[in-house]
Amino acid sequence: EGASADDASAAASAAEGGEGAPVPPLQAGAALASPREVALHAAPPCVFEPPPGVAYMRVSIFLTSGASLLPPELLEQFNPLSLNVASVRDLPGVRVEAKPLQKYVAKSPFALQEQYCKLTYAVIRPIDPALGPRLMGTHGQTVGKSAVWEHKATLLTGHVDRHLFEEAIAMRPLVVEVHDRDPKPTAEEAARYQGLVDGAVVLGPDEYPELAPPADSAAQAAAAPPDAKAGKGSPAKDGPADDAALEPTGLDVFAVDKIFLLELSARWETAGDSFSHGTAKFRLDGLFNQAKQVAAAFARTKADGSDERMDQTIAMKMREPVVPTKRRIMPKGGEDDWALEEGERLVRKPGDYLAADTSLRLQVRLHRPYRTLEEDAGEIIGASTLEPRPFARVVFTFEYKNKGMLQAIIAAMDEVNDAALQDIQGSLRSYQLTEEEVAAAHAGTLDIVSGFHIIDRDCRMIVMEGLTATMERIMAAVPREHANDYACRILSNPDVEFHERLYTSLNVDLKKINLRDPLPVLCRMPEIYNRTKVSSDCFEALHRLHAIRKANRLAELAQQSMFPLVHQLLQVESKYGESISMEDICGEASAPRRTLARKTRVMEDSHMMAAGADTVQAATAAGGHTTERRKAPTDSTNPVFEKSLRERQPQDYLAEQVEALETVRREFEETKVAKETARALDPVSAEFTYSGQKLQYTGLKKAEMRKNLAREKGTHFTHSKDFLSAAISMVDDESNFLKQGRQVTRENWKTKRGFVYPAPKKPSEFYVHPHKPTEARIEILKEEWIENELHPKPVEREMTLKDGQPDFNCLPASGKMVFGGLEPPRFERPYDNNNLGSSTRLPRGSMYLDKDPEFFRSVHLCGEGLAKEKEDNKKREEELWQSKVVVDDLDFKVGGFNVRDRPVQLEKASDILQGKAQKISIKMVRNARLPSGKKVPLRQPPYSMFTRAEYSDPRDFTEDLRADDPTTYTAKDLTGQPLNFKTHIHRSLGKPKSQIIESHTRIKPMSEAEKVGERWMRSGSSREGL
């Protein structure tokens, strides 16, 4: 695990905006007392001791490709874990929606960051304290859409307890902070380190005393004027004229470099507290993947017997989204940004990383797996590196009023601590442990018990920790009276042990925190998710306390690290704590409450004191109670009120409610009996109770009521005594009106005289012609006829013929052929004018009119010619397209086979499963052998997970239905037996037999005596002939 520090030039460049130097390595397992102590005093964890007298050294080591810095035996021993923060991509910059603010991002989304912010860098938070409190940071990159760091860091994990490392990796993610919005340092801060080298800046007396300047420089600083105050990085002021000759001497450049590294680490630590940033969390559970070990085990079972060991290095490439995160510590009253420019305020807001899909790349590499294949998840094989776990914890959760358990717990704890701390001054509640006692407690040599006590108005929760044997003695002193429930819950398990104490700083008395609201109420408050009001430590403490209260097993709390830390509890006390009373501490109030008898006695004493001194003396002699008045008597009595208090009888509301309930129950029983009696005597049977049925019970009862009310003449019945409009209908609207309507409809289907065909005629009908028109037609025929009255001739141009001129005739007379159906006429000879006027010889001779054979040929009857023409055209187009093709084959083929546009569902995996397996891992699985050499054939998986299960008939759902209870039936049949609910009524129900057209009588078979006659004889003779 190597690290190097740059010189003062790196400090100056980092001060300008880039974080260019790494943090010096930290001692593995050391406690992070302060960054200065770690940076200046802690020795780096190197293999060899540094030479004496060497305080600072820069070493550059160059290795050939593939070579390792450590020899193989040290690699196996230290098992280095390498982290490479590669890059961050798709940074959002500054995004604004308001039009007045678009001017800031018109040039580039990163323009404001280039103007006001440092370079983009990343900070890797410590994974686990067991690996050392090492805080790592990358160098700065120019602000832009992406930043490439390729920052590599190495942690040695071989010296860490394996179980602690596995627990830390499984339960805690690796947190990487992306800082692209940290403000640039001021000019004074940028020039501070150069001033320390030049002597222009003088450190304060309490700042880095280990790096004090030489004696002559100290003398020169002492000669400076008194008004020249040298604070933290303050520039030295000019002295008097007589001291001008003294030239200031600055610090050594290596000392300034150490100061820079220290302050750089502090800035990395507090950057997330002061500025908004992005956070990416990586789960490193893949480091426990044993796939390579399994592959190596299979490789050793090959037939060739080669003993070559496979590389078991575990390497992972991970990518996680960056989530915007506000500053962790918000100053009281909110952020004071009134002095900032508008662009600076936009930069200080969290970036929109999620919308931009910002992601961080990380590469992780572990030299070897932590466990072998022979070891189980929690099994230890061979020599154990497990640290001793001598401590145990107990959780008590009980009601606030349970005074007995509280006092028993306090007494058991005080007994243990009194025995461990016998020579202390004062009480255990005020005793503070010394540093030696704290170290002994952590080492397990000082047997003390510590913990905390969470109090609210409903519940108490006590968490205690100590040595395992001591906690067993406390559990024996506070036995479990019954199983855990909501009133009392005790979580204790001696097998669940811990390797460190958490609450030693709380000393030997329970840290009492009285919450102003119950813990479940606090955990449901929305404000705990607002980091401007509630810090992350306070939220985490509330979350863990709530988990402890709901837990049922101590092992769950230990595996999930749900015990809150001391600084988290102090945050809860500061935010939600209240003052503590004696009842909160020991379960008993400091002064009893004043009862009515005490009030009356005090009032009687005041009466006696007002009556006179003699009365007071008599009362003192009689009862021994003396009272000395120190002020004038006052009239503060009310005898009437006091008498009413003594004679007042409180009203028992519970007894009244019980009596009222009993009265209602008796009335209900009486009403129920009356209803059952009336129902038994009711002449109308409740056989059908469904509302849509025609024989429904309610309809029958209405009909019965109308029948009884119809006997009262001259009376108007209503449903209400106040409203006449609520009259009772004396007509069955639901049945009679419908019946009458159906009856009228049926009467319209037939005539009154009946159906007779042919119908008889009257005598007057015999004298009428059967085709006589109607009277209306006769009236129309009487009118004068006008030709084309309804169809007048269309308007056209008038044409006047000359005398003797015939009209145009479209039909030629010759041949009586349709016009256009003849060929052009042919004449016997050419035209000759000499024959004009001759009666024997025409000018052109005879005329011949031939029929046109194509005249009656339809264009729709194409025949074979047109079909052949179309086929020739299609063939010509195909030849033209083929002449333009430049590929060898028009089909897309893979492996010599045509490929479908869409694969068949059953053949999706045929191409990858065709032939023998080519992948090495599949070959290894198919040829796997056990360490004993036995071959393990690969079995084909079943077609379904249910093929091997025993078939069972589906369960009848009616078996789970509630059984019928005849005692609850309302309807009854004619015999009085309970009748189940009927949903169907036959249409023939209630009708006489004469109206029923269906008969379900079974036809009786014919007897042999009835089978006589010629018909039966013919069938018998035919059967005999056959």
Shape annotation: extended
Number of helical stretches of at least 4 residues:
31
Query: What is the end-to-end distance?
Result: 115 Å
Q: Given the helix and strand composition, which structural class is it?
A: alpha+beta
Query: Mind summarizing the main beta sheet?
Result: 6 strands, mixed
pLDDT < 50 stretches: 1-48, 217-232, 236-246, 377-384, 594-600, 606-625, 1019-1026
Structure write-up:
The protein is of the alpha+beta class and 1026 residues long. 31% of the residues lie in helices and 11% in strands. The protein is built from 31 helices and 23 strands. The strands form 7 sheets. It has a 6-stranded mixed beta sheet. It has a 5-stranded antiparallel beta sheet with strand order 3-2-5-8-10, with helices on one face. A hairpin with a 2-residue loop joins β20 and β21. α13 (403-420) packs antiparallel against α15, α17 (536-550) crosses α19 (566-576) and α21 packs across α22 (613-623). It is extended. The relative contact order is 0.05. The model is unreliable at 1-48, 217-232, 236-246, 377-384, 594-600, 606-625 and 1019-1026 (pLDDT under 50).
